[in-house]
Amino acid sequence: MQPIFVLVHSPSVGPSTWRPVAEHLAAAGYQVLVPSLLHIGAGAPPFWPRIVSAVRDDLRQVPAGSPVTLVAHSNAGLFLPAIRSGLDHPVASSIFVDAALPALIGPTPVAPPELLEFLGPKAVNGRLPRWTDWWDEADVAPMFSDPTMRQTVIEEQAHPAAVLLRAAHPGPRRLG
User: Fold this and answer.
1) 20 to 30 Å CA-CA from 101: which of 9, 57, 78, 81?
2) pLDDT, tens digit, 9 for 90 and up, residues 25-42
């Protein structure tokens, strides 16, 4: 049985960042899901259970015995062990695409001290601006050569809570 690809976007951006990959995989005959994590910064910490719930909820449409391949980008990589352990589906593999790696044992900070120092002054009323507003236009523009895609990514971005960056992956789950 072919595994279903579950593409998990960074909590700082939105699911459309995976759209080109999802389209290529679907065109090649694979089933693909891209759960939205846009809501996970809402409410009080801890945030990671909402990430697990979002992925698990998206998989409700898939028969329980169907294997999945989890594919994480950026900081979503930190949450793959928690996602994996929270699913009712067998996980065939986990793939990290330019993704942060969780610690083998114990909690993993979501952001290193130097990133917290960089982002701290950008927070307003405890909320960070959109990810594309963290960087200079000259740095962001080359990442999105298609203007329509770029606009979609900009518009759908969540405004993550600044406290989310101070959270930690719960540890000590392992990928297995």
Assistant:
1) 57
2) 999 999 999 999 988 877
